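Chapter review. Work through the record for S-adenosylmethionine:tRNA ribosyltransferase-isomerase before attempting the end-of-chapter questions.
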Amino acid sequence: MISTNLSDYSFEFPKELIANRTPGKGKTKILHCPKNGGPLEIVPAPKIVDFFNPGDCIVVNNTKVIPARLFGHTMHGGQVEILLVQTLFPDANGLARWEAWVHPGKAFPVGRELEIAGVKVTVEAINPDGARILCFDITPVELEEVMNKQGHVPLPPYIHRPDDEEDKKAYQTIFAKYNGAVAAPTASLHFSEQMLCDLKAKGVHIAEVTLHVGPGTFQNISEEDFRKHKMHGEHYELTQENADIINQAKKNGGRIVPIGTTSTRVIETIADENGFLVPQTGVTHAFFYPGYRYKIVDGLLTNFHWPKSSLILLVAAFYGRENTLAAYRYAVEHQLHLFSYGDGMLIL
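Structure tokens for S-adenosylmethionine:tRNA ribosyltransferase-isomerase:
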């Protein structure tokens, strides 16, 4: 019997294991979890190259984190902050409009004008989930310039420190190309350029997808029966070139190994029942939890995720609840660092 109780997907950990900074690309540790059983083993990140075979295909997310956190004040001087979530069509005058999470919510009623990063902002609407639709008094291009100058790296909420210059590079993967994410696809943070070269030299194929990670990745599940949870939507794209790389690798018997939960969500959203892909763009609300049968994923590199999160459920759907929680206990016992800036696990 597969448990659908959220409380069954929790684990204990000391807070000092939360990684506040990364040791750098290719300098983390990876817990190798043999997919079909076998002893767990902790290896340096570059060592994972040894676990891949020629003809395998890794799938990475090429989204780029934007400086989406902006600070400002009300017209009466109260301090406020926003997290830009999704760009929207400009208004009739060509002014920038965004969906955003805001704090404090009471400062953002419909019609209210505020000043954010020196720019006048009007609250147009409030979504059912509490997000605001904001109209900025500048064009999208001008707003991008403001974000680049005054925006902050949107670090996860469990990292209790201000972002700094180091985070601008540390929280960006080597695959980052297209602006749009407000959270990094953190499994890719384990990769250095040298590791990528070593994989290619071994004959491992590299395919890319784009999924602009939203803040919903950190959204708590409020239902004890997690099947009732509604996932946030995230925009994705798979090009013809990358669909061909993945499909050809699969036809030739190579294993398809997404790097992270975001790449997993894209290819599992698109895959047909035989595990093949067609290029497309769209919005995925995919929510994978134990009982789901994966169609294309043969392995998974992922970070350690927050207890009772949609992400730990995705991993448990692939690796099994007992195996997943056993791996997490092993990681804690061996003092691996946890979450976005922490160490990772390779199920392969």
